[in-house]
Amino acid sequence: MLDHKTAHLGPWLAVPMLALSLACLAQPDSEDVIKYRQNYMKALGGHMGSAAQIVRGKVDPEGHLARHAEAIAALSEDITVLFPKGSDFGETEAKPEVWEDWQGFQKAASKEKRASAEFLSAVQGGGGAKAVGASFKALSDACKGCHENYRAEEEE
Ligand code: HEC
Q1: CA 7, CA 41: separation in Å to the nearest integer?
Q2: What percent of the chain has pLDDT over 90?
Q3: Contact (CB, 8 A) for 60 and 49
Q4: Residue 104: pLDDT band with limits 50, 70, 90
Q5: CB 60 within 8 A of CB 155
Q6: Ligand 1 atom 3 nearest Cα
Q7: Mean pLDDT, the chain, integer
Q8: 48 CB near ligand 1 (under 6 Å)
Q9: CB 65 near ligand 1, within 6 Å
Q10: Ligand 1 centroid – CA 7 distance (Å)
Q11: Whose CA is nearest to atom 21 of ligand 1?
């Protein structure tokens, strides 16, 4: 039986096991990487969709626009890590250009990252509806800018 002095050590026993399972994850297979990034992109899309409704004045839940803007900025932090080398086959819409033109892809990612920061500061800074609307449009264009060159969109 564990007395109260050793009982609190319980959670620490999990640490080596966690390290072990993380080591196994060091080389995730391509299908998992693709699935992860598609879900990640869907999360971005979900926040953008909800934010669009607020920006257009369709709904107005208090404080939510800042919440979406924060989430979008956080998710835009390092989009390129979602595209490791070798994750270019399988059920993906990522075009080979992502890896063939890695510099251009990085540029598109940093442009969108900047746009997401500008949208967040417009929302936080109380720049008014005009600044919010303009920065939202710029952000949305930055998403599309990357998709146009690097994503093979299926007809939906
Ligand atoms: C630097 C390039 C880049 C940027 C920036 C980018 N995306 Fe993507 N996005 C992609 C690529 C490439 C795919 C295809 C991924 C795949 O299928 O493996 C994708 C896929 C998607 C998908 C489809 C996910 C699925 O499979 O269901 C959505 C939705 C999406 N992006 C939304 C967004 C939104 C919203 C933004 C901006 C806030 C954004 N993306 C910014 C490159 C980008």
Answers
A1: 42
A2: 75
A3: no
A4: very high
A5: no
A6: 146
A7: 88
A8: yes
A9: no
A10: 46
A11: 41
The radius of gyration computed from the CA coordinates of the chain, to the nearest angstrom, equals: 20
92 lines ligand 1 (CB under 6 A): yes
Residue 54 CB neighbours (<10 A): 20
Whole-number Å distance, alpha carbon 113 to ligand 1 midpoint, is 13
Hunting for tokens 């892809």 — which residue is that?
A: 105
Token readout for 97 is 């250009």
For ligand 1, whether the C-beta of 51 sits within 6 Å is: no
- Residues 75/40, Cβ–Cβ less than 8 Å: yes
Q: How confident is the model at residue 129 (pLDDT cuts 50, 70, 90)?
A: very high
Residue 129 in tokens? 């509806």
Contacts of 33 (CB under 8 A, 6+ apart): 82, 84, 87
Which token pair is 148? 């146009």
Give the nearest ligand 1 atom to 72 CA. Answer: 38
